[in-house]
Amino acid sequence: VSILFAVSAFPTANTQPTGIDSGLADMVEANGCSCHGTEPTAGVGISLSMPNNFTAGMTYTLTLNISGGPSPMEGGNQGGFFITASSGTLDSIDDNVWKPEGRTHLTHNEDGNNNREWSFNWTAPESDSIVVTFKAYANSVNGDADGSSGGSGGDNWNGASFTLSGINAAVVVDDHGELSTPQKLIYAITIIAVTLGVVIIGNRMVTKEQSFEEVLKCYW
To answer: For this UniProt entry, which segments traverse the membrane (predicted)?
Structure first.
């Protein structure tokens, strides 16, 4: 499930081609990518590929993708991102993504600044009866790093929130409007059990001419 943020009135700063370090992390998490413009752009889409649900302690590879925004200049930078998870651990798996020391978020580095898609690992928490929220911000840039406004002119950014339920979390509907496979199985077993109970009780009430209370006494 994703929810786009609408954020405005942030302080401006220079662009960050090497990612969001420890000194900027709190500001970005609270306000978004204000160094690339004071307001988010609805035309910039952020997607996060992830499983339908997670199992405690398992590690999953997630991919964040940006769509929309300006066309990048030839040979110029294309984008950047920042992502946090409410639970579990995010880790880099290549040279395009890094985690600042002492922080829990991931962001692009100078090599990763040349992409609009990044992959990384997320290790699920010890409990899979909870729902985890991923909060992401991403820039779609034109690569004009030497231009006006500290290189941020013409760049667009947006934010999004994604939720991922543990396999034993309360029943929720996934991104496609369908129940997960384990949830479908639980519902099916429950429906079958209730149906069998009704059939058995009804049959005894008819064939044995017993009352509902008398039938129940036979099974208790």
So the answer is: 185-202
